[in-house]
Structure formats: C-alpha cells, structure tokens
C-alpha cells in the first residue's frame, strides 16, 4: 500500500493518506509526552513495540466481535487502518485506582474496584482533555445518544476481553483509554492499545510496566515496553 501525504501528526503517531480514501497508514513514533505535553522525551523502540502490541490486541478483539479500524500490519512501525471521523471523546475504563482518579478524589493508588468505572474526557489538547459527562457529550453533539450507548457497552466489553487475555500473561489491566470513530455509518474502535494508553502492572509484583515509568522517571522504560510486548506478542 503506497504511502502518500502526511494527514496528521500527533504526539506519538503520524497518519498518512493512501490511494484508497477509506484507508490510512498509522505510523508509530518513539516520541513520548506526559502531563499534557509538559514532559517530553523518547522511549527507544516504543513505536515498534506499540505497533506490534496494538495489532495483536486489535486482532484479538476483532476475533471476539469488536469492530476496530485495524486492517493489517505493513511494517515494524506501521499499520493500515480504516479512516475514521474521530468522535472527540476519550473513554477511560478503570479496574484499579490509579492516575488522575487517585489524584482528583484523594484516593490511594492500588485499590481494586468492585466493578469498573467508566469516564469520558473531551479530546482537546488545548484544554488538557477535561472530564465530561454524558450530558456534555449528547447535548453538545460530540456523539448521539445511540453512539454513546454503543461506545460505553463496547468499552466495557473490551475491558472484559482484555482482562481475560492479559490474566494468563501475568498482567493486570489497571486502566486504559479508548477512542472511537465513524466509518461508513459504523462506529469502530480506533487509535492504539499499548503501554502508552493502558496501565499494566505485573500481577505478581505489581511492578508498573507502562508509561508511568516515563511519567515518573522510574527507569527501565524501554524494558517495560519490551516486557509487555514479549508477554502479549510472543505467546500465541
Ligand atoms: N490516558 C491516555 N491518554 C490521555 C489520558 C489518559 O492514554 O490523554 C490513559 C492513561 O495511560 C491511563 C488511563 O488513560 O491508562 C487513565 O489515565 P488518567 O485519567 O489516570 O490520566 P493520567 O494521570 O495518566 O494522565
């Protein structure tokens, strides 16, 4: 698939056009940002790991009935995906208290929740992705009631599927962020599923194996991505 012009460049990815208007190429970079891009750096081979991890998880979700934008892997850092009209809502699912939930509500990190918490953030870098609720989403027209319902159900189903996949690989799925978009009248899962967008802890030691190692200078950042890659992609 021929790579054409750069359509979009984000913090961790680039999106290129192809000859087919329905398809684009998603290229994964090693660049990393945190705290609304106040902290910047690179993580060695992150793009390679995230491309492979995302591809593996998208294929797994598709096999279990979750429609995604993934079409096929093109190279070490690139996947062919369906072009989406992105819904400007980031959906976060939480199983264990961490990150902004711990901070905002003054809670200790690490407590397992009795059932998942679903949150929505308005996807807007200039505003720092503020927390919003279903009324904001539907009344302001970010998504219809039907789309929101579908997105919420899908997010919870994805959580169940990912937890079932990760458990035998010794990984706890603490929380994660999803993005959805419209493609030919359907809502598809988009973006990526990787240690950039998920918190993964080792189930035995609770060692952090995700972007928190970069956010909080915990060291061995690349090693954590490599370890998640090994556990997800090296076991069929
Ligand atoms: N997340 C993300 N992109 C964002 C914000 C959050 O991928 O712009 C992910 C993050 O990696 C974590 C989950 O969503 O797995 C919940 O993040 P949280 O709200 O705790 O925010 P954080 O403190 O990580 O910025």
The best one-word shape is globular
Helix and strand content put the structural class at alpha+beta
Rg computed from alpha carbons, rounded to a whole number of angstroms:
17 Å
- Give the CATH architecture of the largest domain: 2-Layer Sandwich
Helix coverage percent? 25-40%
Describe this entry's structure for a reader.
The chain has 236 residues and is of the alpha+beta class. The protein folds into 2 domains: 6-82, Phosphorylase Kinase, domain 1 (2-Layer Sandwich), CATH 3.30.200.20; 85-220, D-amino Acid Aminotransferase, Chain A, domain 1. The protein has 6 helices and 13 strands. It has helices at residues 46-63, 99-105, 134-139, 145-166, 212-215, 221-233, and strands spanning 6-9, 13-17, 23-28, 31-34, 39-42, 70-75, 78-82, 85-96, 112-122, 131-132, 171-183, 186-189, 198-202. The strands form 3 sheets. Strands 8, 9, 10, 11, 12 and 13 form a 6-stranded antiparallel beta sheet that branches. The protein has a 5-stranded antiparallel beta sheet with strand order 1-2-3-7-6. The protein has a two-stranded antiparallel ribbon with strand order 4-5. A hairpin with a 5-residue loop joins β2 (13-17) and β3. α1 runs parallel beside α6 (221-233). The chain is globular and about 50 Å long. The model has no long low-confidence stretch (mean pLDDT 97). The protein binds uridine-5'-diphosphate. The site of uridine-5'-diphosphate has 13 residues, from α2, β11 and β13.
Q: Which descriptors apply to this entry?
A:
236 residues, alpha+beta, Phosphorylase Kinase, domain 1, D-amino Acid Aminotransferase, Chain A, domain 1, 2 domains, 6-stranded antiparallel beta sheet, 5-stranded antiparallel beta sheet, 13 strands, globular, binds uridine-5'-diphosphate
């Amino acid at each position: 698939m021929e790579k054409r012009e750069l359509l979009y460049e984000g913090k961790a990815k680039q999106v290129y056009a192809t000859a087919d208007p329905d398809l684009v190429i998603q290229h994964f970079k090693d660049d990393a940002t945190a705290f609304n891009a106040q902290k910047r750096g690179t993580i060695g081979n992150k793009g390679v790991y995230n491309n492979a991890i995302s591809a593996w998880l998208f294929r797994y979700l598709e096999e279990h009935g979750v429609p995604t934008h993934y079409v096929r892997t093109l190279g070490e850092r690139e996947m062919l995906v369906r072009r989406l009209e992105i819904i400007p809502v980031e959906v976060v699912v939480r199983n264990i208290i961490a990150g902004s939930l711990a901070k905002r509500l003054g809670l200790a990190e690490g407590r397992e929740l009795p059932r998942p918490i679903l949150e929505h953030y308005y996807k807007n870098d200039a505003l720092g992705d503020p927390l919003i609720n279903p009324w904001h989403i539907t009344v302001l027209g970010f998504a219809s009631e039907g789309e929101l319902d579908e997105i919420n159900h899908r997010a919870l189903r994805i959580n169940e599927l990912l937890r079932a996949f990760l458990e035998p690989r010794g990984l706890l799925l603490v929380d994660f962020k999803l993005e959805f978009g419209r493609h030919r009248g359907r809502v598809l899962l988009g973006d990526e599923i990787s240690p950039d967008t998920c918190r993964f802890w080792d189930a035995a030691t609770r060692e952090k194996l995700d972007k928190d190692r970069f956010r909080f200078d915990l060291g061995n950042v690349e090693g954590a991505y490599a370890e998640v890659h090994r556990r997800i992609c090296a076991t069929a």
